[in-house]
Amino acid sequence: MFYDWLAAEWSSDVALAWYNTMLTLISVVLSGIIIAVGNILARTMEPDQFSGAFIGLALVSAEMLSMLISGALTAATNMEIALISVERINEFVEGFRREDVRVLGPDEPDELAAWQTKALAEWPQDGRITFESVVVRYREDRPPALKGISIDLAPGEHVGIIGRTGSGKTTILLALLRIVAVESGSISIDGVDITSVTLHELRSRVGIVMQDPIIFTGSLAENLDPTAARTRDELIDVSQRIGLVGASLSHSDVSEALDAPAVLPSGDGLSASERQLLCLVRALLR
Fold this sequence. Notes:
4 strands
């Protein structure tokens, strides 16, 4: 990686040196032509018909022409760089495969809405997670990251997944949230196939505490409940039960602490354990 960067930097420096040399050469050639033409005119024309001021004006104009060429080339280069940015945005818009937002169920919109409302009214209640012969691969030309894995996690069960790098630990979580598509097999939560619900419904009902906490700048309350979907009493109750704020504090003191701008950019102002607790409370509130 370093040598690739060094090669690109060296190529850029060489191109810039060539560019400056060519501009200087163009300016010298133009000045030489003007001086040669002026010398010829001075020898062939009468003194009252020719003035050295014309030569000076031509030399100044030649210098200005060199500056105009430099400006035009700089503008063309900047425009090309800007067009590369547009090309990259277009590649993201059209070239990348979007998430699979299909929902299994009735084809009619009204029936689908009623079916989902009934199926997801209190889902999930217990939290049983079942993988049945799940196969996941990131690219069609690559071997599977998960090869027919089957798991049955009982409600309330604590499970640790251990394996070497690249063994598929993270892929299990990505498949559970439908961040990567399942090639074959099925994943269900409380008996409901995750492909039978929308991405929003699925991801809004699964709580995750990441290894690197995601923190927003603002107050604790804004971090715990970014969408303002919970009441203040729920925020206070869960925060005290988890230990994010002192259990002995009064209701008003905790409410005041939650509204204080305690979180700075990049999570500054909170220790690593406090950031983890904050994410845990956020997950429980969901």
